[in-house]
Amino acid sequence: MSRSVRVIWDERLTSYDFGPGHPMAPVRVELTMALARDLGVLAKVEPVDCSPATDDELALVHRRDYIEAVKRVSATGRPELSYGLGTVDNPAFAGVHEASALIAGASLAAARAVWTGQAEHAVNIAGGLHHAMPGSASGFCVYNDAAAGIAWMLEQGARRVAYVDVDVHHGDGVQAIFFDDPRVLTISLHESPRTLFPGTGFPSETGADGTAVNVALPAGCADAGWLRAFHAVVPPLLREFQPDVLVSQQGCDTHALDPLAHLMLSLDGQRQTYAALHALAHETAGGRWVATGGGGYELVQVVPRAWSHLLAEVAGEPVDPGTVTPQSWRELVTLRTGEVPPLHMTDGRRADYRDFSEGYDPADAVDRAIMATRKAVFPYHGLDPMP
């Protein structure tokens, strides 16, 4: 078990709510925390509340005029379309600044706990709003909490921070904020920008000295291909970069049931990713790991189980995938959503994969995606692109 683990949580984090019918419904976070609690996961960690990020903290990654625009929308509920506020993706709502600043504050609290040594690992599952840009909202994201946490740690003296984003969508906001900063290695594995929002994240986007890394996977990619790509790119780069801290965005919208994307991972494949990132945090970053949530829009079948596994992995005591979901949680699901809840903590998949070191197949679309990334960035880091 890890030495000290903090889960940043405040019931007010569910106030980040774009309204009925919006895919990013806060019930997904509510059901996650309830499942983790009922499984006994939260008994093994130290829950910590948080306060909203200050304007100065938000200004580490956002323009001041944008922060003021968010405040105006927050006070009036009226759109500011020039700042991306009031669109279909990011509807305007009263209180948006307070809700968004609290999420950023939660990720800053996680970063502080890890950087100051109060905790070895810390997680904010309400965070991971990786599309927010310095001067605009985008893709359900108003303030970029992960970027704020990274920027704060850099201000405190961090020499190198690695950010690994496993959301199905490209982590474009975090990449944009640190694109020219060689102290931050951003690695994003996502569905190809040719078939999915935001239309960026090609391997050719390499940033400062190859520190922007993009693995653009073909639609339909499942556990075996995704895990092959992850292990072909992420471990060698983290081992070479040797970050002071690992920050991860754990969007679970790579799942086959997610309604907004086209990858085909199972819960079991995602769980393997959490374990791999945990091991890499200890191997390459002295155990310092800040994890956030992210995307995930299958609100009952996927998000609560995926992120409960994440919380358990962060705590160092993984949940057996064969575990039956607690009756108390299933009753809550029915009450809150009217849906039939899943019965087990697994999709029943083995999630096996073939390691890239066994050879490159140019006829395979996943292998071509892997090789495009390795050719684009590995030479910057003194690594051989060939397996």
Automatic annotation (TrEMBL):
Keywords attached to this entry: Acetoin catabolism
Functional pathway: Ketone degradation; acetoin degradation
Segments forming domain Histone deacetylase: 22-312
Record keyword Magnesium present: no
GO biological-process terms attached to the record: acetoin catabolic process; epigenetic regulation of gene expression
InterPro entries: AcuC, HDACs, His_deacetylse_dom, His_deacetylse_dom_sf, Ureohydrolase_dom_sf
Protein name: Acetoin utilization protein AcuC
UniProt organism field: Sphaerisporangium melleum
High-level lineage: Bacteria, Bacillati, Actinomycetota, Actinomycetes, Streptosporangiales
